[in-house]
Amino acid sequence: MNPSFSSYLVNDVFGDPGVYVDIRWSRRALLFDVGHIDGLGPTRLLRAGEIFVSHTHMDHFIGFDTVLRVALGRGKTLRLFGPPGLIDNVQGKLRGYTWNLVDGYPLTIEVQEFHAETVRQACFRAADAFRLSEQPVQPLRSAHRTDGFTVLEDPMFTVQAVALNHRIPSFAYSLEEQFHINVNKQKLHESGLRVGAWLKDVKEHIWLGRPDDFRFTVALYDEHRREEREFVLGEVKERFLTITRGQKIAYVVDARYDEENEAKIVALAQGADLFYCESPYLDIDAEKARDRHHLTARQAGLMARKAHVRELVVFHFSPRYTGQGEALEREAMEAFQGF
Fold it and tell me: What is the rounded distance in angstroms from the CA atom of residue 251 to the CA atom of residue 123?
């Protein structure tokens, strides 16, 4: 299976936390947390139209200015999602600059912050000098998991979250593909068809739940001509596609290890293909980790094991362990593998 999501840490394991998820074949990406993100570069930042913020401690949010500078003057909408207070934090960032020369700029920033039962929404437009524009409050959509809720619902995937205890709410996220669509290129070739943009339209029809008898027309090209051709969705699915389980990624940062947080994390990450989990401390320093409302590497490994994830990636190591990264990874993997 060629995965739909290609993900990686924004920085090394001792750097600011963050995960970049490239959605293949769509020129679109998702960004989880915006700490120091200069290494991503403008091209990748411009693809990341949706940003999911765990909380606004400096190492998770200082990169908002970088995103803002890259996006200014671009005809795009930037969408941020996160915990209570995010709208005020974004407004505070925007108020730190003078905007008298951006009235012709097309940038719009939409922010949603999630409370216990409601979602507060706001919009900031460059054309209006980024003044706060409050939007109607919406009810929170439950994810039917342990205190979980839906943050973003896209035809292709869903982003869900839980609020963890870090003395303040710190959001953990899961990204889950609705299902995965594999294209049999050999069968396409045998039928005289080429791989192309028309297959993206086919996938869109399936994600949107079109019935098998749905008919659609696509433009097919070769080196000599352009041809309009009608297809029936069910026939395309039967002849050229295989639909399988969707990919899942979980992202957890900055949370104390306690019974409530553990239950939320295990439920959120259950069955994930890839589990990114903070591990700032070795277990010998578990008391310090608890005092600082963070996890140890062993605790991350234990939760990954309980959640039956396929792969664990630990990161956000404390600088006190500089040069001991392998020890943190080893401790996490031993707990994950049950040694």
Answer: 26
* Sequence-ordered list of residues with C-beta below 8 angstroms from that of 339, at least 6 positions apart, any chain: none
- How many CB atoms neighbour CB 149 within 10 A? 20
CA distance 331 to 298: 6
**Exposure on the CB side of residue 69, measured as CA atoms within 13 A:** 10
Q: Are 119 and 139 in contact (CB under 8 A)?
A: yes
Distance CA 330, CA 152 (A): 35
pLDDT of residue 222: 63
Give the integer Cα–Cα distance in Å for 63 and 57.
Answer: 11
Mind giving me the DSSP string for 72-119? TTSS-EEEEEESTTHHHHHHHHHHTS--TT-TT---EEEEEEE-SSEE
3-state secondary structure of 165: strand
Q: What does the alpha-carbon distance between residue 315 and residue 148 come to, in Å, rounded to a whole number?
A: 23
Pairing of strands 19-23, 118-125: unpaired
The structural domains of the chain, with segments of one domain joined by +, span: 5-178+246-337, 180-244
The sign of the CA dihedral 194, 198, 199, 205 is negative
| pTM of the shown model | 0.90
Give phi and psi for 194, each to the nearest 5.
-105, 150
Mean pLDDT for each consecutive 10-residue tract of the chain (339 residues)? 88 97 89 96 94 98 96 91 98 96 93 95 96 93 71 92 96 92 82 77 83 83 71 84 89 97 97 97 97 97 98 97 96 93
CA 35 to chain centre: 15
Domain spanning 5-178+246-337: CATH 3.60.15.10: yes
CA–CA dist 146, 22 (Å, integer)? 28
Dist CA 314 CA 68 (whole Å):
29
What's the length of the chain? 339
| 166 CB burial (10 A radius; 0-12, 13-18, 19+) | buried
